[in-house]
Every structure is written in C-alpha cells, then in structure tokens.
Backbone:
C-alpha cells in the first residue's frame, strides 16, 4: 500500500560510501489516495492498477478492494485530477481523499489482540482435550494426576492471558457498581479453573480445565466476530472529512501556488479548473460555469455559477474555470458541518441497548445470587464441607452461565444476515436487525435511491440524420451530464457525428460550434431560443431552424413501485425528502403514491426532519445514497444505502443494498421481524432451561462436568432454533 520513503542513488551500500560527491536526493513520490466506490471485483483491481500505472509520473498504484481505495505514489507534478480523469476513461468514478484524515491501512490493534488471544485459547484447548481423553478412557491414580497437572500447566496461563477481555470488562462493571454479561462469564471461568486445581491437588477424579478453555474460546470467537462487524462500520465522520479536497491552487499576484486547504484564510483567492471539486466555501469572483451539487444537495441538474454566487466545498465545477474568494476553509466549511452532524447522530444511535444487554442486566444478578446462596446453604447443611459446597456452587454457576443467552442474539443475527446477504443486503451493524424490526416510518431520498441517478433521453424527436449527427457531435464535446447521456443514446442508435468547427463551450449555457458555416448550439432553453419544457431538457438550435427539445427522465430503480406499495400495505408511514426542486419531487411522489413529500431539502434539513420524527416517538428507517443524506442516515433509528451510492453514505448506513432492486427492502423488514421473534423464543428456551436445570444443581445432583454438558445442550438448542430464520 505504500512505497519506500527513502530512495537512495546507489544500488548497494558500498557504492554509497565510495561516492563522496554531494548529490541531491530525488524527491520522494507524493501520495494520493482515491476513493473508487464502483470497484467490485478482482478484475477491477487489475484494471485500475494498470490504468493508473500508465499515467506518466506514477511510480506505483495499489488498490484496497475492501475499502474501495487506491493509493498512488507519483511525482509531484502528477495531479489528482489527471488520475481521476484516467479512471473516468476506464469507467470508474473517483474522488480524492485526504490521507491525513484516514487511519493507517490495517490499523486495528484491538482486532489483532483478540485474534491472538483466540489462537492461544484454541491451541491450549486442543492440547488439554487430548490429555482429557486419556482420563476419560480410564487413567487412574498417579497417571490421572499427572495428566491433570499437565492440563493445569497449560490451562492456567492460557486462561489468564486469553480471558483478559472478560476480566477487564467485568472489573470495569464491578468498579462502577453494576453487573454486565461478562461478570458471570469471568466468574465461571475463574471458579472452573480454581475448582479443577483444587480437585487436582486432592487427587480428585474430575478436573474441568477443558471446560474453562472451551468456554473462553467460544466466547472470544463471538467477541472477535462482533468486533470485525463493528470495524466494517467505521466512522462516517472520518470518511466525510477525508472526502474534503486536501489541497487547492491559491492565486497570489496572478500566480497559482498549490497549498494545503488548511493554510487558506477568508479573503484568499483560489483557482478551480473544470472537472475539479471546489475545496472551500466561498463566492465566485471571476468566471462562469455550471456546478454539480448532487453530492451536497441531491439536485439532479447542474446549477449556474457566476460572479457573486456562493459555492461550497464538495461541489464539482463542470464547464468553466472559476476564481473563488474564500469565505470558509477546512473545518469551517459546510462539508465539515455535515460531518459534525453525522458524528453527533452516530453517538446518539450508539446509545441503543441490544436485547442481549438488556436481558443480561436482569439475568446477571440472579445468577450470582443463586450460586452464592447454594454455597452458603450447603456449607450449613454439610457442616462446613468446603469442597462439596464449592463444587455445588460452581456447578450452579456453570449451569446458569449465560452462554445460551449470549448466543440467543448472535446466532439469530448470523442466520438472518446470511439469508439477507443472499438476497443482496449486507448487514453491517449487529443491532441493525433488531432496529429494523421496530421500524414504523420510512424516509426515502429520491435521486439515486428510488431512481437510478442517471438521466436518460425519453421520446427522442424524429430528426433527420444530419440534425442527429450535429446533436451527437455537440454532445460529445461537452462534459455536461445531460450532454453525455444524449451522446451515449445517439451513439447506441448508430448516429454518425457531423464534422464541426470552432467548438466553444459557454459555461452555464451550453456548447456552440459551426457546421458548414452555420451556427449550431446545444444547451439551455433561453440560450437556444426555445420555450422551457416542464421536464428536464436540453435544446438543439441549428441556424434558421426551430429549436429541438431533448427531454430527459431519471429511470425508476427496479422494485421502487413494489416496495412503496408493500410498505403502504404494511401500514408504514412513507416520507420522500429530496434536494430536487419542489415540483419535480411532488410529481415523482404522486407517481409512486407517496402522500408526504418535501423538496429543496439541504443536508441539515434532512437530518432535522429525521430527528423530529424520532422525537415524536417514530422509529425511522432512512434510505439514501448521497453525501447530502449522510447526516440523516446517521440520525435515523436504522439506515440503508445502495452500494452504488457515495462511500460516505454507505459507511454511515447500517445496511448496504448490493443489487439494484430495492424491493428486497420489504424482505429485510419481514426477516427482521421474524428474527426478533426467534430471539424472543431463544430467551424463552434459555429461561425454561434454567427453570429445569437450576434446581438439579442446587440440590447437588449435578457435578460441574454435568453442568457443562447441560449448558452445551442449551446452547445447541438455541443455535438450532436460530437456524430456522434461514
């Protein structure tokens, strides 16, 4: 993922010593990190890496498919815009990330620590089980004692090391004068080892070192899998900050100088070339262009930008160079204010208590009281027989150990997540299914969520081959989204472009050229002498001929109508919130049968509306795909983002829609409801097991070994019941 930081001028140390001539070291390659959300397979990796390597000045390019990022080491003169342009030519959308705002690749010390402890527990458990086989097979007296002592030598240091996460959590809970799931777990492990050591010292027939190690191993496995799932849902606020443009071209006395955005101050002038993202909040001081605000506001059409008009960090300059006077930079921009909204919303949602945690808060005190009560009663009944009393107390603690309770939720979540993954939904957060089952209100974004986010021509006018060829030639010369879509459609129809001269793009208006001496234009209605259409449109004007209208629509995402109908039938409240113009949003809502729709919503407006619904007691599911949706996605009770959406939106969401068909959202809600039912059944099974097994342990009819077998049986029952979700 990185290149050597120091590149010496010699191939060997000896040559370096021999050459005493001072020489300037070549500059170290600059590092550029790109987000490439459309990568999805190994073929994409090789295509991207080969394509970037072809750019002159690039030393190396390495792709991380999991993070959808490419790290490029290149000469200082290689600009991120040239790399992004190369990827665009290969069919990949790319965005520059600020590498200083990102964690180092592979920086997961907690995950590595858990994995190391898991490996130690597994290795020790396998060895102790091999020794236990000899004891179970009939080893007697000194041989049995020897095997027990060897098991103790293996198990005690392994349990001390591997069980540290449980001991630390239990200690922290006890120091705060509360109980959690780890308190009875830690106590069961410690007492199982202590009783085993006691029995070994007294030459007893049974020791339970293997049970203590097995318990440690399986609990660590669950803890590690939970950690990996949470690591996949890394902070959206960090990713949003990294999306900000890390450098800008500052104008001083007419000279352009590259600087870090953090060095800019209000009043500075920056130059933004066509195709680049705007690095600051500011006002246009010079130039005209069109601005793509889709990432920030969700608007499907570019907006005109001229002198005096406000622009914001994160927006993309499309057609003309702009000089922008800085009003806010770095952490003061609107983009960073969105990141702050996301961070606050994430912190609030993190307060959601999982069902298992809520059950543990009531269950843990009962477990300890029963074990302590059993010890006290048997000390009194047996006349102070410490060995008998301790064995019964440990058996009670093991038989009531919350393993089945701990598996009740993860087993169901794993089975349900696997089912939904096969349907095209990736569950990122462990509590997402629980929260999905509680949803009563669904808030949708429009562009890119209920639609495909790519306008396409509809009802193309019947043009002569000459006129169609002129339209194709003009469209191919423009970077405007509508022009690109028109060029693609006409090209698929076999239209041949006409030769044009003096092609000129007028930022904010359109593209103009000469065809056989005649002026031809493709662009806005007023500029092309046309009457504006109520639909999204671009207009073709050929000198002395009436203007021709090309109307566009954004195709519905597959399953959009079905999912709205199913949600309405299920009694869910449906709300449409979009950054598009109010008439377009209202017309779209009427088309799908959505009764509540809001247009021209800014990112903070979406987040405020979702928060307001939550304040009313509604359990909100937010579905969105853009940067303008991230704060709302994080603020919602649970959230879903399409895989085609911006990386920041996918990171902020709990569930990712891998395919194009959004109708699987209905299946997700139904599966979540069924999963919640299975979790409740598992809690019931666990409770009934304790009702039946605890009296047996309390009365002294269960040794710690029998208690361990009963505990394993209850865990197996819970797991099999969870599999029914599939």
Residues:
């Amino acid at each position: 993922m990185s290149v050597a930081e120091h590149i010496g001028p010699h191939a060997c140390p000896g040559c370096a010593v021999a050459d005493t001539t001072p020489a300037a070291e070549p500059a170290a390659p600059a590092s550029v990190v790109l987000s490439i959300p459309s990568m999805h397979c190994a073929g994409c990796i090789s295509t991207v890496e080969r394509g970037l390597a072809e750019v002159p000045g690039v030393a190396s390019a390495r792709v991380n498919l999991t993070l959808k990022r490419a790290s490029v080491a290149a000469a200082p003169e290689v600009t991120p815009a040239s790399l992004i342009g190369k990827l665009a030519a290969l069919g990949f959308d790319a965005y520059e990330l600020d590498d200083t705002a990102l964690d180092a690749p592979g920086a997961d010390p907690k995950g590595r620590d858990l994995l190391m402890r898991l490996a130690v527990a597994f290795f020790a458990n396998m060895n102790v089980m091999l020794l236990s086989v000899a004891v179970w097979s009939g080893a007697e007296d000194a041989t049995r004692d020897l095997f027990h002592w060897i098991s103790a030598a293996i198990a005690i240091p392994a349990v001390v090391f591997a069980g540290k996460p449980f001991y630390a959590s239990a200690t922290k809970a006890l120091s705060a004068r509360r109980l959690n799931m780890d308190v009875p777990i830690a106590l069961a492990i410690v007492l199982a080892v202590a009783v085993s050591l006691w029995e070994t010292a007294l030459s007893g027939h049974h020791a339970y070192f293997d049970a203590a190690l097995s318990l440690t191993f399986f609990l660590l496995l669950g803890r590690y899998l939970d950690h990996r799932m949470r690591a996949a849902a890394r902070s959206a606020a960090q990713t949003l900050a990294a999306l900000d443009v890390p450098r800008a071209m500052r104008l001083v006395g007419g000279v352009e100088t590259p600087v870090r955005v953090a060095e800019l101050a209000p009043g500075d002038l920056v130059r933004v070339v066509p195709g680049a993202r705007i690095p600051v909040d500011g006002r246009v001081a010079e130039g005209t262009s069109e601005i793509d605000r889709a990432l920030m506001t969700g608007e499907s059409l570019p907006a005109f930008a001229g002198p005096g008009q406000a622009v914001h960090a994160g927006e993309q300059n499309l057609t003309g160079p702009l000089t922008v006077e800085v009003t806010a930079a770095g952490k003061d921009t609107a983009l960073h204010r969105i990141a702050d909204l996301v961070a606050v919303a994430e912190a609030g949602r993190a307060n959601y208590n999982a069902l298992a945690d809520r059950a543990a808060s009531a269950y843990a005190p009962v477990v300890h009281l029963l074990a302590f009560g059993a010890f006290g009663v048997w000390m009194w009944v047996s006349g102070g027989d410490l060995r008998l009393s301790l064995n019964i107390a440990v058996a009670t603690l093991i038989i009531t150990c919350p393993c089945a309770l701990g598996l009740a939720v993860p087993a169901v979540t794993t089975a349900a997540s696997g089912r939904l993954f096969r349907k095209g939904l990736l569950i990122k957060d462990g509590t997402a299914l629980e929260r999905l089952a509680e949803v009563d209100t669904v808030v949708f974004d429009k562009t890119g969520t209920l639609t495909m986010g790519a306008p396409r021509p509809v009802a193309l006018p019947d043009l002569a081959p000459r006129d169609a060829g002129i339209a194709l030639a003009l469209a191919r010369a423009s970077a405007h989204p509508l022009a690109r879509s028109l060029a693609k459609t006409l090209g698929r129809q076999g239209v041949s472009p006409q030769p044009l001269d003096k092609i000129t793009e007028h930022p904010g208006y359109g593209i103009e050229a000469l065809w056989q001496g005649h002026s031809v234009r493709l662009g806005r209605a007023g500029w092309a002498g046309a009457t504006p259409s109520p639909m999204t449109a671009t207009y073709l004007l050929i000198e002395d001929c009436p203007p021709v209208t090309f109307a566009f629509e954004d195709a519905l995402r597959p399953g959009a109508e079905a999912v709205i109908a199913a949600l309405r039938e299920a009694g869910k409240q449906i709300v449409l919130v979009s950054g598009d113009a109010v008439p377009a949003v209202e017309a779209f809502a009427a088309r799908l049968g959505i009764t509540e729709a809001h247009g021209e919503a800014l990112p903070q407006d979406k987040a405020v509306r979702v928060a307001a619904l939550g304040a009313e007691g509604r359990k909100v599911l937010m579905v969105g795909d853009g940067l303008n949706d991230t704060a709302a996605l994080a603020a919602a009770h649970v959230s879903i983002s399409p895989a085609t959406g911006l990386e920041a939106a996918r990171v902020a969401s709990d569930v990712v829609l891998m395919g194009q068909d959004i109708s699987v959202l209905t299946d997700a809600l139904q599966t979540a409801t069924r999963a919640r039912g299975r979790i409740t059944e598992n809690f019931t099974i666990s409770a009934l097991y304790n009702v039946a097994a605890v009296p047996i342990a309390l009365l002294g009819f269960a040794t710690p070994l029998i208690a361990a077998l009963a505990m394993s049986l209850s865990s197996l029952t819970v797991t099999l019941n969870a599999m029914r979700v599939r």
Notes: The chain has six domains: 13-97, 108-232, 245-332, 354-423+676-726, 425-450+557-658, 454-554. Residues 245-332 form a domain with the Calcium-transporting ATPase, cytoplasmic transduction domain A fold (CATH 2.70.150.10).
